[in-house]
Amino acid sequence: MAQSGSSAMAHEILESADVVSRIVRDRHAIAEVARCLDIGAAPVAVLCGRGSSGHAGVFLRYLIETRLHLPVSASAPSVITAFRKPLTLRNALFIVISQSGRSPDLIAATQSARASGARTVAIVNALPSPVADAAEFVVPIEAGPEHSVAATKTVVGSMAAGAELIAALADDTALRSALDRLPERLYRGLTLDWTEVSDDLAGASAVFVASRGLGLGSAREIALKLAEILRLPALGFSAAELQHGPRAALSSKTPVIMMRLMDETAATVDAVATELRERKIALHLCGGPRSTLPWLGDDDPATDAITMLVPAYRMIERTAQEWGFDPDRPLQLSKVTETF
């Protein structure tokens, strides 16, 4: 079994704050991309990415819809690669997110979007890369090599770089200020110990991870990491959905990790948390006055959604080592998924 702290995943989590520091420091380059985009005529924004990159896209969806007031659609690359049906995306804002920049389906979807007249932006870690080459504009993450199969610092970087782009497009000074504070928040977030969650995971039949709005992408991302690294059935839901059909699957063997952001979604999350406690469901809540998990105190909801990933990642990596799993090499997975 690997020794605690020796995994690539552990080291890469620790680098997350430095990645965001570089992004914030170089925001002038992202602002120049925003200036060139000129999205005043954009009828829609389309986000393209799979896995962890797709979760960063969910986060950006809420930023785009709340800050730019553009409706957002998630791209289905198979429409291009399998069905071979190009979309009409003239003047649309098309954002593709990819850590490796080499997934064939993302390349094809970006090429098709650009050919149809979309303004295409690639948020990528690997430069040069085919995805970056396919897009008109590039926003680099510059996180450096990521050796663990499970993406961590690149996910944090994708979200931060995307938030910088939206802040520039919207001229959102509050979001820019929150991004200025984010590196220090991430450094502090590395000290938060969420070990209490792992105590409920060993006997779990499944794990539910929930949030709302800007936190939904992070909820889905944490659920993915629980599945791929700890081999647990894990589902990421909107907290609102736990008031509907999925609530029937909750039991004493399905712990819930819930993230509460201090925004318009807080009241619903509080109501769901109260109901789960009444039903004796094992609830691990981050954020707000009734937080059970160690937390820094609320800041901006957009950047808090990013910060909450760090203690979750650390808990999952440590639990993997305690269980004898290699957090860097999940079974049957590779770093680049060659979907087409």
Automatic annotation (TrEMBL):
<keyword id="KW-0032">Aminotransferase</keyword>
<protein>
    <submittedName>
        <fullName>Glutamine--fructose-6-phosphate transaminase</fullName>
    </submittedName>
</protein>
<dbReference type="InterPro" id="IPR035490">
    <property type="entry name" value="GlmS/FrlB_SIS"/>
</dbReference>
<keyword id="KW-0677">Repeat</keyword>
<feature type="domain" description="SIS">
    <location>
        <begin position="197"/>
        <end position="330"/>
    </location>
</feature>
<dbReference type="GO" id="GO:1901135">
    <property type="term" value="P:carbohydrate derivative metabolic process"/>
</dbReference>
<dbReference type="InterPro" id="IPR046348">
    <property type="entry name" value="SIS_dom_sf"/>
</dbReference>
<dbReference type="InterPro" id="IPR035466">
    <property type="entry name" value="GlmS/AgaS_SIS"/>
</dbReference>
<feature type="domain" description="SIS">
    <location>
        <begin position="33"/>
        <end position="184"/>
    </location>
</feature>
<dbReference type="InterPro" id="IPR001347">
    <property type="entry name" value="SIS_dom"/>
</dbReference>
<dbReference type="GO" id="GO:0008483">
    <property type="term" value="F:transaminase activity"/>
</dbReference>
<dbReference type="GO" id="GO:0097367">
    <property type="term" value="F:carbohydrate derivative binding"/>
</dbReference>
<dbReference type="Pfam" id="PF01380">
    <property type="entry name" value="SIS"/>
</dbReference>
<keyword id="KW-0808">Transferase</keyword>
